[in-house]
Amino acid sequence: MTTRSGPQYYPGASQNHWYEDDYPGDAQEVNVLVLHTTEGRALPTYGGGSSAPNLTALPDFKAKRLIWHQHFRFDTSSRALKNLSGGVETNTLNVGQAELVGTCDPDTRVRWVKAGRVQDVDFIYWPQAPAWALRDLAKFLAWAHDQHGVPLSGPASWPAYPTSYANGGGQRMTGARWSDFKGVCGHMHVPENDHGDPGAIDFPELLTLAQAMLGLPVPEKPTTPPVPAFPGRRYFALGQSNTHVTRLGRQLVARGYRRFYTVGPGPTWTEADRRAVEAFQRAQGWSGADADGYPGPETWRRLFS
Fold first, then answer.
1. pTM (2 decimals)?
2. H-helix or E-strand containing 185?
3. Secondary structure (3-state) at 181
4. SS3 state of residue 171
């Protein structure tokens, strides 16, 4: 059993939902952090602690900050990952875990908006998290690096949900890669787990913020490619076949809408393309004629931004 070292309690975190007394866990020296999303708007009960992470970040929208709740000491194994018998170790492989209250699912976001919930006022959609939420999450990553040596690095691929579910984006680590990994990753990267959270969270921005907080050199960000010019609505109608349809379809897949395509995407506009575009439009909070499945200039701009 490894001896815990360094501070075990995240500064300012509440211990009102403490589970280590009931689920003692294993001592470890954390060198991996796994980020989850709760897919809910409130602090979960975690079955009384049986499926709890080390910490949970609950948004305080009025104060524009994350309220942290700690459930286990930092260097105690927690319980939010699936761990199959006879496979690799997950929860106990020097892994710390943090749940982020909110969602990474665009369909959930649409449901909440339809129910009258307002993004960044009632819930966080983590792929479009507000600056204050990324700032406070980056503070936690900076602390984990400074106090426990968790590397400020991680996987390059953070595909959008639901593509990320069940390794649809090919992002999940092999057992060997996982056993060697040190740094920050998502639930979707951990072997033996089929969940797709936290989806397309802005991981490069989180690392940049954390590095800047610690005064570390911040790598130059690659130049964002310009949004391609919208070619016009006439190219996106039933039976139309052109390179613009292919480009649109590939971008929809990259943004997490692969589920609408059994074949393709390809150059011919089909109902699959229309339904994928409609789902993307609804994820923007649009409805009616604004979410008819046919791209206009604003749909195109947001899809390629």
1. 0.81
2. strand 183-186
3. coil
4. coil
